[in-house]
Write a structure and sequence with these properties.
Length: 305
């Protein structure tokens, strides 16, 4: 972060602060209004907010620690651990977004076609299992980073190449030029497929299905089991909020993939920072979209917190 232009640095700080406030308040609002009777959707929102906060906290620690340590090299295992933890939050946030989109699409389809019959994810136990699966999968897909050697041997200049004076590259997949096996490239593209392309495809398909139901069967949208006192309007607003967040997700991660594919034609340090800003933009905006759409960010809840 030390080498960023002032405008870009200010934008990053603003996004981090806004994301921190939004995700903390989303967790507090859910805890105040839903505890102890959490429903599936509440658990998914808590998981999303927690993943966002973990990403923000680790990335902030990453930047602050490296700014203080600019005169010394960062250890290989420290670098690997920080990269793992920062990417873990990002991937977990993606998987929780997919889970929320699938849940709301099934719920809306159930409401439109089968009245009040429950779906599998309505069960809190099933929601916990699905949330645990998201966390476990996010852990597994990030573990190979510990096998990547991100640093050059002593004597090689890495600061300019990595965009980090400490020698720890900003790019999650970058390895040293002297030790970069072909498996590293394979892991990169498998990671993009599993954690970016497939979630983007699922969110796009479920978003289209939700939009089709909202446009074609608007008069039939009534609360199934997620209404909170205001009837069908609450369920409808929550669904629109999910749809808006899904649209934001599609825009952000499409831009991310555009930066990933033509890597050779984009300045390395700029690309790494641009990827972080894209991820943080979703982390910052999504809690406000969900909170406002679900009536969690209301004056009443502000007074409670």
């Amino acid at each position: 972060m030390a080498g960023l232009p002032v405008d870009l640095l200010g934008l990053k700080v603003f996004i981090l602060c806004a994301g921190l406030v939004g995700n903390v308040f989303l967790i507090l609002a859910i805890a105040h209004t839903k505890f102890p009777r959490f429903k599936s959707f509440d658990l998914f929102l808590l998981g999303l907010a927690a993943a966002n906060l973990e990403e923000i906290a680790i990335t902030t620690a990453f930047d602050v620690d490296f700014l203080r340590a600019s005169s010394r090299a960062v250890g290989t295992w420290s670098c690997r651990s920080l990269k793992f933890l920062s990417k873990f939050g990002e991937v977990a946030s993606i998987f929780f977004t997919v889970l929320i989109s699938v849940f709301r699409q099934q719920k809306l389809s159930d409401v439109a076609n089968r009245a009040n019959l429950p779906i599998y994810l309505d069960s809190v136990g099933s929601a916990r299992m699905a949330s645990g699966a998201c966390v476990l999968l996010a852990t597994v897909v990030n573990l190979p980073v510990f096998a990547i050697d991100p640093k050059e041997p002593a004597g090689n200049a890495t600061g300019n190449a990595t965009g980090n004076a400490t020698g720890c590259p900003l790019d999650f997949f970058q390895c040293s030029e002297s030790r970069c096996p072909a498996l590293n490239g394979l892991y990169k593209y498998l990671f993009i497929l599993v954690c970016n392309l497939l979630p983007l495809a699922v969110v796009t398909v479920t978003g289209c299905l939700i939009l089709a139901v909202l446009l074609g069967k608007r008069s039939k949208v009534t609360p199934a089991s997620g209404g909170t006192g205001s009837g069908g309007s609450t369920f409808h607003r929550g669904t629109v909020a999910v749809l808006a967040a899904m649209g934001l997700f599609q825009v952000e991660w499409t831009l991310y993939l555009i930066l990933q594919l033509p890597a050779a034609s984009v300045d390395f340090a700029f690309r790494a920072e641009a990827e972080l800003l894209i991820s943080f933009s979703y982390t910052c905006i999504s809690p406000y979209v969900y909170g406002i759409g679900s009536d969690l960010f209301s004056l009443k809840n502000f007074k409670k917190t």
